[in-house]
Amino acid sequence: MGSQILKSLNEARNICLATPSIYPQVVPGVLPVVGQQQPLELRRWGADFLAETFASPVLPAEDKQKMALAVLDTLTKYVHRKEDIGEEEDAAVVKSAVQCAASIYPLVFRHTLSTQDSAEVWAKMAGIKSDILRTMDSALAGVRICGIKFIARVVQVQTPGLISDPRRPEQNEISLALLSRDHPVLRPSQLEAEASGLLDRLLGVLQDNSSDALVVTATLGALSVLVQRRPSISSKILMTVLNYNPLVLAVNGLAKMGGKERVAVKSTTRTTMSFLLNVLKRNPNQPMAARLQQRTEQLRHSLIEVFSETGPGKRPAPDEPIDGLDNHKRMRTEQGTPNGMMAQQQQFQPGYIPPLPPGPVSYAQLFTLNADSSAAGFHVEAIPLHLVNQLVPALLASIDQQRLTAAITAVQTRFLEYTKRPPGTALQAVRAVTGGEEEDDYDPEGTVAVAGEEAQIMNRVDMMPIEGAQQQQDSGGPVQPFVLEAGPPLTGREREEISKLALTRVFGTLAELDKSVKAKGPKKTDSETKGFNRLASTGLGQDRDGWVALLIRLATRSTFDLNGEAEESTVKQENDDRSLTKRGGASLPFDLATAIRQTLLNYVMEDFRRRIDVAIAWLNEEWYSDRLAYLSRHTPQDSTRSPPTMSHDLPNYTRSCLLTLDTLTTYLDDRAKDGRLLIRFLSEIPEIDAQVLTRVAKIADDPERVQMACQALLYLIMFRPPVRGLAVDAAEGLWRGNEDARVGVGKILAKWRPEVLREGLEEEGKGKVEGGGEVKAVEEVNGEVKADG
């Protein structure tokens, strides 16, 4: 029965590993099966599964936080087994439970921060923490190492960290800095004091110069994370590590140390050196950089001195051989030289050609006939081209024909020797690159590095084509052209996501160019072409105007077929919205042009005083594109049709212009002299109708911006004669509907439509007779109507 349950659990685990999104459905169903009363095999499986679940990097933090609250009871029973049942829990179960607790501690802390009534949840987590801290010193080595990791996680959470964005607390790192002083459950002072005590407990391992290599290595690994992420306690940690002496077991000499002690001394010393070097590499300019470098060199020389077989009175051997060869390689090289001549002496003999190295040979090695390694490392591209043109003819003229013939013969001989070599196995190729000798001394870092290098080379050798098959392919005829198989077609959702991503990146680039323009000023070019015929790609990639023109034309000129001949081209609806509907009535879920228009509007409004030129250029392009579409639908012979108007034949321009004006008028401020900005906008857009002027007149609803609206209407009347009548109508509407605007609009109407003022004067005169009012906005002098003020 137990084996069948384990089989089902392993299948569920494999499914979760393949599809991490189903962890929230699987974990609640697994918890009853792996509880405290279940057999040992099921408890071991359950503890390992929970530790693996919360350590998964692909599972979202939100899902982990929800599941963390559900597993607290199970973890409590794992660590409380002796108090509940009276028997010790299995070490493997406790070790996995401690790992799981280290993973969920920050999640429970964040849940407690955001939830006011979470005292019970935090009490469970505090109980688990108390049990782990109480029993870890007397537990086995594996449990103790996991407990060190748990303590480091608690210190990291209960120590103030950096706040990257105070407005987005859910995206900041979980630390004590997120906790408010008046939290009903958590007390910042208590948590910070507890973290300080736990840090002293970790540092006590190094302060006591512990000889347990496993505990010291685990402690240094945990402290490295704290030094990186918690600058407030990094100085204290570094001072403790600098004072730590990993060679405490070597005080009595090498002869009195056993094999276990030698391995422990080497392991702890090299781990300490790696810790100091990583800290120095991460921040080379820190105040303690000199002390870190000095301590690293001191540990290195001390380690060499301790394990030197010549004794302290003699000069120790250097770390690396002077000539680049160790003793074994030097012996083999000297045995292979003819006449007993040393390899170093042969290299300086005239006409000497070094042999090819064993294993695979590159073209550079095949044609290199000089034994000097510095010549092989020189890159010829470092010489300027004009010097090469001067040197090559002189060198070719000075070459000795005999030496050139000898060099060609040497290359041919080396190539023939290489082709006659027996094919080697993959293991031999690995040994040729990494070396096949085993070292007597144990080096954990070196072992891991060599093993990883051997694995990489074995994988590359396994992927190499078979020599026989390659020869058959070479002799089978001409090589056929390689055609890359086309990928699967993109779905609509994929196209939408890729389009949105591209749009975000392009506008991000545009924002960076805006920063450079503010810092350096606009780039001026005399040959730049203005108008509709300029190239959108001018300065693309480095010029802000080029990017803006490209985006605007992507939005305005790429969404319809001017001739209307394509079957799937966009056409006009009844409401003239030709950019949102295809033939057949199917609506598009995502339209790139619409998305660009909306993003352009947002981009302009983020800094509308500086980017008003972008809005003007965009609306001019919209009007131009709509005009082209209108002319393509109506032939020139159709002379009876009236000229195009905004609301009927310029759909995209109308919608974009009104939306931009509605958004812009929300931010206009008369105190910031934004009236000039409004006048510039109205003067440079290509077409204005009654809808635009209605929105301009609506600005006068704000008493502080009445003068801005009046000035805009006066400018249109004086300098845009085609819309003079519409502007005067808008001024008359303000006169009749807005009492605050009468003084400003009265000056306009006094010149362009005085009859309105006469009517107003008559009505006010009647009102004065009937009601005795004193309101007087206009007066008539010598038959002329004048406005007050």
From TrEMBL:
GO cellular component, one term: mRNA cleavage and polyadenylation specificity factor complex
The organism's place on the tree of life at top rank: Eukaryota
One annotated GO biological process: mRNA processing
Domain Symplekin/Pta1 N-terminal: 90-307
InterPro entries the UniProt entry points to: ARM-like, ARM-type_fold, Symplekin/Pta1, Symplekin/Pta1_N
Biological classification of the source: Eukaryota, Fungi, Dikarya, Ascomycota, Pezizomycotina
Compartments where located: Nucleus
Keyword entries, A-Z: mRNA processing, Nucleus
Predominant location category: nucleus
Record-given protein name: Symplekin/Pta1 N-terminal domain-containing protein
Keyword Nucleus set for record: yes
Keyword Nucleus set for record: yes
